[in-house]
């Protein structure tokens, strides 16, 4: 099947045969059209698809899903970089990339699951205007019903197997879907005696305090460097756009180091940018790179931009992720 615009489909399957009916047909159609085909799947499904494709499997690039789906923002960045690299033909013309991408859902917290749902919705914005095609398998035998239902809201189309598809009647505009995710974000951290104030002349003190906090928790050196760089960028934004000063709060749990940056706000009504930091910026643009970099360095991030005071909370896994 030849289609020109970006296509994003969910393949909800309940058997190995259903999976292969959709995924193998998708891959073979792509190879026949001379598209680049990337399959990011659980090991078992890599084996199933590889055997089904036979000799043609050597033309497909296979990647283990758990090596790719570490955190939503970095995964989106990886797909974007892959398509940028492989999305141009030998004569410089655009070339289609087909991706079979199966997110890793088991073992996620409710918060993490919601952010991966947001990621699926954001793909529709990140790749709008391209000719690429992404097929996302959902195993209905093992996934929670809420995850399977979300697929109908984050994918404009539902794959039916054998190259057939239908429009999803429950598809939600990404702006609306992300707004729902924001409403469910964790509440702001309570103030504490160990809050670290910062301002135009106090950011170095806050960075040093963060380094010490991470060191005491045994966070690896490179992860600490990423943490300090990301938090510094957020504090710079607060100084520039959030009234000139703010507070850094540091907390931790079994899995994450949590860094929350709040500022005092400004009377100016500055509209928040759409999908702040979620989408790859234009490399030629002079601005708009900061929050993208912050999301690439952190594992999860929530933000509330408000003239009365903004809150940006960054989560860093205590063990490094891909």
Major sheet description: 7 strands, mixed
Strand content: 15-25%
Radius of gyration: 21 Å
Helix content: 25-40%
Number of helices: 9
Pfam families: HATPase_c_2, MEDS
Protein name: Sensor histidine kinase
GO molecular function: protein serine/threonine kinase activity
Organism: Streptomyces liliiviolaceus
Give me some keywords for this one:
322 residues; alpha/beta; Rossmann fold; Heat Shock Protein 90; 2 domains; 7-stranded mixed sheet; elongated; Sensor histidine kinase; HATPase_dom; HATPase_C_sf
Structural description of this entry:
By secondary structure, the protein is α/β, with parallel strands linked by helices. It folds into two domains: 7-183, Rossmann fold (3-Layer(aba) Sandwich), CATH 3.40.50; 196-317, Histidine kinase-like ATPase, C-terminal domain (Heat Shock Protein 90, 2-Layer Sandwich), CATH 3.30.565.10. The chain is 39% helix and 22% strand. The chain contains nine helices and twelve strands. The longest helix has 21 residues, at 221-241. The chain is elongated, with a radius of gyration of 21 Å. The two termini are 34 Å apart. The model has no long low-confidence stretch (mean pLDDT 91).
């Amino acid at each position: 099947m030849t289609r020109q615009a970006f296509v994003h489909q969910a393949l909800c399957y309940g058997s190995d045969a259903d999976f292969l009916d959709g995924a193998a047909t998708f891959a073979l159609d792509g190879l026949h059209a001379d598209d680049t085909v990337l399959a990011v799947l659980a090991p078992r499904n890599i084996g199933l698809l590889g055997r089904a494709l036979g000799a043609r499997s050597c033309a497909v690039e296979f990647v283990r899903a758990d090596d790719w789906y570490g955190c939503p923002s970095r995964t989106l960045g990886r797909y974007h970089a892959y398509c940028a690299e492989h999305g141009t033909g030998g004569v410089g013309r655009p070339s289609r990339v087909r991706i079979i991408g199966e997110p890793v859902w088991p073992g996620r917290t409710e918060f993490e699951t919601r952010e991966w749902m947001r990621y699926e919705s954001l793909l529709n914005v990140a790749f709008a205007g391209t000719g690429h095609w992404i097929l996302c398998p959902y195993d209905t035998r093992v996934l929670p019903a809420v995850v399977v239902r979300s697929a109908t809201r984050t994918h404009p189309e539902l794959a039916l197997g054998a190259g057939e598809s239908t429009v999803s009647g429950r598809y939600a505009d990404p702006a609306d879907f992300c707004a729902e995710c924001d409403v469910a974000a964790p509440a702001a951290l309570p103030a504490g005696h160990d809050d670290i104030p910062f301002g135009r002349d106090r950011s170095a003190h806050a960075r040093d305090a963060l380094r010490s906090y991470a060191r005491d928790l045994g966070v690896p050196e490179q992860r600490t460097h990423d943490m300090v760089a990301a938090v510094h960028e957020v504090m710079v934004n607060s100084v520039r756009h959030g009234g000139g000063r703010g507070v850094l709060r540091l907390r931790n749990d079994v899995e994450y180091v949590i860094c929350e940056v709040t500022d005092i706000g400004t009377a100016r009504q500055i509209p928040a940018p759409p999908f702040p930091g979620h989408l790859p910026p234009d490399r030629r643009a002079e601005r708009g790179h900061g929050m993208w970099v912050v999301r690439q360095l952190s594992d999860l991030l929530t933000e509330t931009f408000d003239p009365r005071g903004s809150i940006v909370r960054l989560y860093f896994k205590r063990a490094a992720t891909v």
